[in-house]
């Protein structure tokens, strides 16, 4: 119960009490009342109100759907304090205030009903005013990353894709970067870009974290630096039937995705704890949330990263060290080509990184787009595991090159 209270207290922090009440009301409407109203309540007795005007029957059912979407968006917007909540939350409750005036004029006789409507309209007008004045709460940006975590970050897999975008984003915040990957020429080109555009220092470490001892070699190369941010991003995909894949390549994948992040986090964490601040980021994948035939080893390693990161998030609460698992879906990187997949649409890497930095310090993991979130969580939580595996098999098979089937 104490852990539950701590979690609830954390979730309620950062908002005034009245806003937390409004958030809980929106969640109740989105997850309990509106589904019952739409799918269970008989249409013959259904009634929906917009701007004080009553609708019945089929019209009520139809107009309940936007109410459902509004309350769902409102619950999420309050939960994450999204900037778009201003002015739209105030606009919606302003509509309710107007409805309280229109309702008695259309449907209630006598002075008593009019007075009741005026009182209710005044209350909702006050709520509308409070939401309008709450704009700074919705627009408060994150603290500068350098102020939160220190002067140096270490980014693995920095030669391209998500890793390179992490380095650019951190450098924009004034954080100097250790750039790690196998391709030294690319790292040096990125280092020159960061130094020239953002005035930060860089250190290039060309090493292969998929080899035994690679992570330990990297630790020795940065032992003189106060690393405050560790981005465990290095990785690659490998598509094909498990029985036909190269065994050594699979072993290297396990070393790169699982062993290296453990070694690096374990080596750098004591310095962060001593400083009372730091950040550990793990690039997982939505693939780690469900069975993924033809990507079996990749999915298993990403499940490892997710469980490791989320466990450390709990262990390190209150120490000043933030932990986040980034779980992207398809991303516009070299991943598809290296993994042996046909080219397909993906989210831009810079958007993935921005979502991660926004979530860092607020939650244990993040899926940076709606569709991958719904697809991965829906399959894992709603469908039987056997059916989820079969559906995933069909989807992946269409993306994989024919010679890998």
Please describe what this structure looks like.
By secondary structure, the protein is α/β, with parallel strands linked by helices. The protein has 2 domains: 11-139, no CATH class; 145-404, NAD(P)-binding Rossmann-like Domain (Rossmann fold). Helices cover 60% and strands 11% of the residues. It has 16 helices and 9 strands. The protein has a 7-stranded parallel β-sheet, sandwiched between helices. It has a two-stranded antiparallel ribbon with strand order 1-2. Strand 4 (176-181), helix 9 and strand 5 form a beta-alpha-beta unit. Helix 8 crosses helix 14 and helix 10 (214-221) runs parallel beside helix 11. 34% of the residues are buried.
Number of helices: 16
Low-pLDDT windows of residues = none
Number of domains: 2
Write the CATH fold name of the largest domain: Rossmann fold
The CATH level-2 architecture of the largest domain is identified as: 3-Layer(aba) Sandwich
CATH superfamily of the largest domain: NAD(P)-binding Rossmann-like Domain
User: Which range best describes the helical content: under 10%, 10-25%, 25-40%, 40-55%, 55-70% or over 70%?
Assistant: 55-70%
Using the alpha-carbon principal axes, give the shape: globular
Strand arrangement within the widest β-sheet reads 5-4-3-6-7-8-9
Main sheet characteristics: 7 strands, parallel
Structural class: alpha/beta
């Amino acid at each position: 119960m104490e852990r539950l209270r701590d979690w609830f207290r954390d979730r309620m922090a950062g908002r005034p009490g009245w806003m937390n009440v409004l958030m809980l009301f929106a969640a109740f409407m989105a997850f309990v009342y509106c589904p019952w109203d739409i799918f269970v309540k008989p249409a013959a007795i259904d009634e929906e109100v917009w701007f004080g005007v009553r609708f019945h029957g089929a019209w009520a059912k139809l107009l309940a759907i936007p109410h459902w979407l509004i309350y769902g968006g409102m619950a999420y917007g309050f939960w994450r304090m999204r900037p778009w909540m201003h002015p739209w939350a105030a606009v919606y409750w302003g509509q309710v205030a107007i409805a309280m005036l229109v309702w008695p004029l259309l449907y209630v006789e006598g002075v008593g009903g009019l007075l009741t409507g005026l009182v209710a309209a005044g209350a909702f007008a006050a709520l509308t005013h409070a939401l309008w004045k709450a704009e700074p709460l919705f627009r408060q940006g994150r603290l500068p990353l350098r102020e939160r975590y220190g002067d140096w970050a270490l980014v693995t897999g920095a030669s391209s894709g998500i890793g390179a975008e992490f380095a650019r984003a951190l450098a924009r915040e004034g954080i100097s970067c250790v750039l790690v990957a196998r391709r030294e020429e690319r790292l040096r080109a990125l280092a020159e870009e960061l130094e020239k555009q953002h005035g930060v220092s860089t250190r290039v470490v060309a090493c292969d974290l998929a080899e035994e001892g690679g992570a330990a070699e990297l630790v020795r190369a940065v032992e003189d630096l106060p690393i405050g941010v560790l981005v465990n991003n290095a990785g690659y995909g490998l598509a094909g039937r498990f029985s036909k894949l190269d065994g050594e390549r699979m072993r290297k994948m396990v070393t790169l995705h699982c062993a290296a992040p453990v070694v690096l986090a374990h080596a750098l964490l004591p310095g962060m704890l001593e400083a009372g601040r730091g950040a550990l980021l793990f690039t997982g994948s939505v693939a780690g949330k469900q069975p993924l035939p033809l990507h079996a080893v990749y999915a298993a390693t990403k499940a490892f990263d997710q469980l490791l990161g989320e466990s450390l998030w709990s262990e390190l609460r209150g120490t000043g060290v933030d932990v986040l698992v980034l779980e992207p879906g398809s991303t516009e990187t070299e991943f598809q080509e290296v993994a042996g997949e046909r080219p397909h649409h993906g989210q831009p890497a810079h958007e993935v990184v921005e979502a991660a930095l926004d979530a860092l310090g607020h939650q244990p993991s993040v899926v940076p787009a709606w569709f991958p979130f719904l697809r991965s969580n829906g399959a894992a939580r709603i469908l039987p595991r056997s059916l989820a595996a079969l559906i995933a098999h069909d989807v992946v098979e269409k993306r994989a090159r024919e010679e890998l089937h």
